[in-house]
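[recover] target loaded
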């Protein structure tokens, strides 16, 4: 308990927010116009959630300004998602739910053997929850709601759930209810993608445990994508410990495509150990060549204001190379290029995907819409370190770093 002085400081929020706002509304069935009682209503990725009363009404209090996805979910109905921009005024929403249409899923999901299901669940935990120290303290309470399917000779794992997947994160003190729409893990290539909505609930514990959670949450926050985007939004990157660079690179024309590698690995597993060795080596080869830095970015060059005060547009040429100078990198990422003599700070390469030449970020530190791709530190962020978008640090960055120094000493 020698860090009690530091922990007490952590109780004071480091970010001040504008006055809170309220959302009220009513949920009804589209076909009968009847009120839907007991429907889950929440702001995705936040700690704001509730259920409708007998007359279908709901209220969400204490909301922070920003742009959110309001999600409504109820048994027997299709989930509804509505974009809500919260400023100073209260918001009223009336949502109609469409009856759910039952669809037949792939036979491979229901006929998977027990051993395959156990193997799939363990792989899912690694790819969805994580493999760090926090992940060991996370528990899925209802794994039976998960449906799995293997494809391409078990080189691709897919999953979905028709109801909330409930996970308790005992490292950070959150119970997370996740509506998992789809999940895909390419096992040979290490590519993981999933989509869904989640709401956070505070777990109850002793004051000592709560203080421990507060420190772990701040540890997850500082250096995260959320911390970076908040710092970028406020034009306070230097204060936040960030440096950003313009990185260009070419695609390695000698490396086969991911789909070609997957297909050949699947065949080689059955035909030839030598061929399998060759294609595994191809999977490990770098995707890029001719990587070069073109100087540091200025915030004003890549971030533009919009008509919505809660949103800004982020756009940049090539790739955004983000360095966080307050933490050392503990993992090796072969695709993350480093200049000779560069210190081993935590680094992430941010890339705009497909035809998107910009993304929108809000003041809460989230990407609105489809996220860019990450390589490096942020690429390893899983549910084990996930924080709600309305999270407020308990300590300033300097206080947190001081506590870490004292703990090491």
């Amino acid at each position: 308990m020698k860090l009690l002085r530091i922990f007490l400081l952590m109780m004071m929020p480091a970010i001040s927010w504008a006055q809170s706002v309220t959302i009220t509304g009513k949920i009804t069935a589209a076909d009968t116009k009847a009120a839907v009682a007991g429907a889950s209503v929440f702001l995705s990725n936040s700690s704001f959630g509730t259920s409708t009363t007998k007359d279908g009404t709901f209220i969400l209090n204490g909301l922070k300004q920003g742009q959110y996805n309001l999600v409504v979910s109820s048994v027997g109905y299709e989930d509804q998602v509505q974009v809500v921009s919260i400023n100073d005024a209260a918001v009223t929403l009336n949502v109609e739910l469409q009856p759910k249409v039952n669809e037949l899923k792939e036979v491979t999901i229901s006929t998977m053997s027990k051993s395959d299901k156990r193997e799939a669940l363990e792989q899912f935990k690694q790819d969805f929850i994580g493999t760090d120290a926090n992940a060991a303290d996370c528990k899925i309470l209802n794994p039976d709601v998960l449906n799995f399917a293997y494809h391409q000779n078990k080189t691709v794992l897919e999953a979905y759930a028709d109801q909330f997947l409930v996970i308790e994160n005992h490292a950070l003190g959150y119970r997370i209810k996740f509506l998992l729409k789809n999940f895909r893990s390419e096992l040979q290539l290490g590519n993981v993608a999933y989509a869904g909505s989640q709401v956070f609930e505070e777990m109850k514990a002793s004051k000592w445990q709560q203080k421990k959670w507060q420190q772990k949450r701040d540890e997850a926050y500082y250096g995260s994508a959320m911390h970076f985007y908040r710092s970028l939004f406020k034009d306070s990157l230097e204060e936040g410990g960030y440096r950003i660079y313009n990185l260009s690179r070419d695609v390695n024309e000698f490396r086969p495509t991911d789909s070609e590698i997957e297909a050949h690995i699947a065949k080689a597993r059955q035909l030839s150990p030598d061929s399998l060795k060759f294609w595994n080596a191809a999977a490990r080869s770098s995707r890029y060549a001719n990587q070069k830095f073109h100087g540091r970015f200025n915030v004003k060059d890549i971030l533009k204001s919009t008509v919505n005060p809660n949103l800004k547009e982020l756009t940049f040429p090539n790739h955004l190379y983000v360095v966080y100078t307050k933490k050392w990198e503990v993992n090796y990422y072969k695709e993350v290029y480093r200049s000779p003599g560069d210190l081993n700070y935590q680094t992430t390469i941010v890339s705009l995907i497909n035809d998107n030449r910009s993304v929108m970020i809000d003041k809460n530190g989230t990407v609105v819409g489809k996220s860019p791709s990450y390589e490096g530190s942020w690429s390893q962020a899983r549910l084990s370190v996930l924080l709600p978008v309305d999270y407020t640090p308990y300590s300033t960055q300097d206080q947190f770093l001081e506590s870490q120094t004292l703990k090491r000493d």
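[recover] notes: The chain is about 25% helix and 35% strand.
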